[in-house]
Write a structure and sequence with these properties.
The chain is of the alpha/beta class. It has a single domain, classed as 3-Layer(aba) Sandwich (Rossmann fold), CATH 3.40.50.1820. Helix content is 32%, strand content 25%. It has an 8-stranded mixed β-sheet, sandwiched between helices. Strand 3, helix 1 and strand 4 form a beta-alpha-beta unit. The longest helix is centred in the middle third of the chain and has 18 residues.
């Protein structure tokens, strides 16, 4: 049976108004991941589409959404606006699929805004966080300050990071995740960069990168299921 795909809208913030969302729900899904997009993209970007389709193959639903600035084609919103949008997206996802267990995260910027929201105040009904290329630092400026707020989070977290990610050098990311203890897990995607583009001559696995991430996420869900 084909996946059910539904276009939706919800109010991001009172000031910024309504934004778009896409609910992709495969038959027999039990989990739903709320997925925020990268800083310079939107919910329809090829990476977001690939993530949603791969998760659907594992019977995991997705709720992709736009931040107000990507919805309206304007300069990036403040962190406060983006954090509030994450909260609104999680509530809208819960309303759209009240029977599914809720996870939240995103690709790059979307994941960081989700973790920021969770660290400030737990997101409603969210049972775990999934980071597709967590942006630990700016390119060429290695640092771990962006990981400090993660210590305030006490629900399971999964980091899916390429070994060539220029925004998350492994010698910094690995100890940062290890510092989070039992709540966090890191899966390294061989030969992939921040956008999950792969150097084929370096990659030892024949598995598609997005299929690998979806499989790992499904296994992680099973391990953390209560």
């Amino acid at each position: 049976m084909e996946n059910s795909v539904q276009g939706l809208h919800f109010t991001a913030t009172a000031e910024k108004g309504v934004v778009s969302a896409i609910l992709m729900r495969p038959e027999n899904a039990t989990y739903l991941v709320v997925v925020g997009h990268g800083a310079s993209t939107n919910m329809r970007h090829a990476t977001m589409q690939a993530i949603a389709e791969a998760l659907a193959e594992q019977k995991i639903a997705t709720f992709r959404y736009n931040f107000p600035y990507s919805e309206n084609g304007r300069g990036r919103d403040s962190a406060d606006v983006c954090v509030e949008t994450v909260r609104s997206a999680c509530r809208a996802a819960r309303e759209a699929a009240p029977d599914l267990v809720l996870l939240a995260g995103g690709h790059s910027f979307g994941g960081r805004m989700t973790s920021t929201a969770q660290s400030q105040e737990p997101l409603d009904d969210v049972k775990g966080l999934v980071f597709f290329s967590f942006p630990l630092h700016l390119a060429g400026r290695p640092d771990t300050k962006r990981a400090e707020h993660l210590e305030q989070i006490d629900i399971p977290m999964l980091f899916l990071s390429g070994t060539r990610d220029e925004l998350a050098m492994l010698d910094l990311l690995e100890p940062a995740v290890a510092k989070l203890g039992k709540h966090a897990a890191l899966h390294k995607i061989d030969a992939a960069n921040h956008s999950y583009k792969v150097l084929k001559k370096m990659r030892t696995s024949q598995e598609n990168v997005f299929a690998e991430m979806a499989r790992v996420l499904n296994d992680w869900i099973t391990e953390n299921r209560t």
